[in-house]
Amino acid sequence: ASLTDITIPIGAKMEARKTGLVGFRCNLDSRVDVVDPADWDPAVWDPYADPPMESAPTASSHDTSTEIFDSLGNPHELHVLWVKTGEAAGGNTWSWVAHVPSLKAVVGRGDVTFGSDGKLASADPVKITIDFTAKGAESSEVELDFTGKSFDKETIEGVTQYGSAFTTKGYYQDGCTMGVLDDFFVAADGSVMGAYDNGQNIPMYRLSLATFVNPSGLAKIGDTHFKESNNSGLARIGVPLEDGAGSLLGGALELSNIDLTEQFTQLILAQRGFQANARVINTSDQVLEEQINIKR
Length: 296
Hints:
Elements: E1 13-14, E2 21-29, E3 61-69, E4 75-88, E5 91-100, E6 105-115, E7 126-130, E8 140-145, E9 159-162, E10 169-173, E11 179-186, E12 191-196, E13 201-206, E14 209-211, E15 219-222, E16 225-227, E17 236-238, H1 260-295
Parallel strand pairs: 2-8, 2-9
Antiparallel strand pairs: 1-11, 2-10, 3-4, 4-5, 5-6, 7-8, 11-12, 12-13, 14-17, 15-16
């Protein structure tokens, strides 16, 4: 790509982005009792039913909530209720029910099975459809990731089932409200990142970096500026952190690269030399003054 000047459009807007992926992590407590579907059935339970249905047994269930966004950028709480519904030698089964209070609707149900190692036995993605049309927005297909893959982690970092306290929660989602660009920063790889007031950091440009076969051969042109010379070789234009190029440190001012110890030593020597010369002049002045007095 060719080099060009860049402009940071402070005040520019970015579109709202509807949530398409929600990642979960942490742990479901394997020590809780199994819930009998005859007592409470996750396949039909609806928290918005009229008349109201009985809630899941507190001791054997865990509710998580994550903020998601529709196509207009409106926030909604996505709740996922986890209930232990099966226990076997090969692993345990948990049922989940997803619902959105702002829509008063259940949006998905399913089961997950854990192996005897506490990890998910199945890593298949789960997709649910949420109808936001009543709010003037589009319907959204949302993938629920229980495996940790959505945030580039191993299965152990997704939803697990060990004999520890409940900690499962929504960890990652990719939606956002509309945003306004109010700042920017430079990353180590030279990417100029736009910082929006909705918390999103979006790459806008990438800075170039020149390398030389012999950097010491660059010609000084003053004010810490250098230019290409026959000794330095031709400039090789690339980007930071690639092909041997270094990294950038945004928002920082390079300090002086001189040897302070050497410079202070030279300063002291210069001071001593000045003092010695001053004494010679003073002595010469006194000798001349004495000669003038003798003549008088």
